[in-house]
Design goal:
The chain is built from ten helices and twelve strands. The protein is of the alpha/beta class and 292 residues long.
């Protein structure tokens, strides 16, 4: 079989990808200090954190070291959850989860708390989505560092333009049946274990380096309306001012890029020198939380 695969790929006209099979461990045990991370995924009734509910939560703990090597995968948790409302048809189609499956089901928060108490970090593939939903479930999700396997790895810099989990899996030569929480977590850990295509660093190592940094949320308060397209192109997002938050364009950037960004805003957006704008400093303890 391997000979056939090699012959096909050697032509340059074919690429063979393999069905993903979860593994028990990625590296042999050694004396390096280990910490525990949790890859997490949620399935929900929709996209609105204020009105939609979690219908499935999966948490897959794993051991890792400071160099980004992954060791054992530890016993996982998966729980369905009755949202107390009918699951919309579109959510049932995407997740495969029906009203009958979740009827009377509830997440075991005692198990979730125990897993979180042992972990140093929670990782999600789109933590900006998952963290607010999890914080609505349990306060313990607010008191732990979070990282994102989309935003905390510069995939484009590594020659990969798509960031959907299934696409990253394809680029790494495997496929899986997605949109159920546990398999998504296991596939995510598989990707974390791989080297980046250009730098050859472990994906997890790069993610952890990004997660450790202090960032600034810079608010371009009072920016001229006709500069909105320029701000969007530069990566700014619009905050409509709901729930007591500022009504302004904002961008998250590393602390050491602040001075350069202020110069850019003065020259290109405000057309005057800018010495002060509202800003918030944050780390992985608050990153991706709707409390920011």
């Amino acid at each position: 079989m391997n000979d056939c695969i090699q012959q096909l790929e050697a032509t340059g006209d074919y690429r063979v990808i393999k069905r993903f099979t979860p593994v028990a461990a990625y590296c042999e045990p050694n004396e390096a200090p280990k910490r525990i991370g949790i890859f997490l995924d949620t399935e929900t009734t929709g996209l609105d954190v204020e009105t939609d509910k979690v219908i499935e939560l999966a948490m897959v703990p794993f051991e890792f070291d400071a160099s980004g090597r992954i060791y054992r995968l530890l016993p996982e948790y998966n729980g369905l959850n009755d949202p107390g409302m009918p699951i919309p048809e579109i959510a049932q189609q995407i997740t495969g989860i029906t009203d009958e499956m979740v009827k009377g089901q509830a997440i075991d928060f005692a198990v979730v708390k125990q897993l979180l108490s042992q972990a140093a970090i929670v990782i999600a593939h789109n933590a900006r989505f998952d963290r607010p939903f999890c914080e609505n479930l349990l306060d313990e999700f607010k008191a732990i560092s979070w990282a994102c396997s989309i935003a905390d790895v510069n995939w484009q810099e590594e020659g990969i333009e798509g960031v959907k989990l299934e696409f990253l899996a394809y680029k790494y030569g495997f496929f899986f049946e997605g949109h159920r929480a546990t398999i998504d977590c296991q596939a995510g850990i598989e990707i974390l274990s791989r080297p980046l295509p250009v730098s050859a660093e472990p994906v997890l190592k790069r993610l952890l380096e990004t997660a450790r940094r202090t960032e600034i949320r810079l608010w371009a308060e009072g920016a001229p309306f006709d500069k909105k397209d320029q701000l969007k192109k530069r990566g700014y997002r619009w905050s409509p001012g709901e729930n007591g938050k500022r009504k302004a364009w904002y961008r998250d950037l590393p602390e050491d890029e602040l001075d350069a960004e202020m110069l850019y805003l003065g020259a290109q957006i405000y057309s005057r020198e800018i010495t002060e704008l509202p800003m918030d400093r944050f780390t992985a303890m608050l990153r991706y939380s709707s409390r920011l």
